[in-house]
Specification:
Blueprint lengths: L2 E2 L6 E2 L14 H11 L1 H13 L18 E3 L10 E3 L1 H12 L1
Amino acid sequence: MNLVCKHCNKPFDPTKHRGRHPKFCSPKCRSLNWKKNNHVKANAHTAVYKHMPMPYAQVCEDCNWVLADVAHHEDYTKQLEIEWLCMECHTYRHKKAIA
């Protein structure tokens, strides 16, 4: 059984993919589709990693842990206004925002 990729419209065999319900023929198509549908977020991510160096021994702004390596945007239209968080606090912030 072949499916059609949501991004490039090419047929692909879903049995060759790890996901339970594959919609894309490759990780690249999945990424490109996300960037197309989330262009404001994608542009903010690009701006941060292009214009701001990764901090060395940055402290998490929520829990004060020394390994804060995730840039968090409260507002994606303000591309370079970020908070450095650890992965755990970043995940918590997004779960809290959804609830």
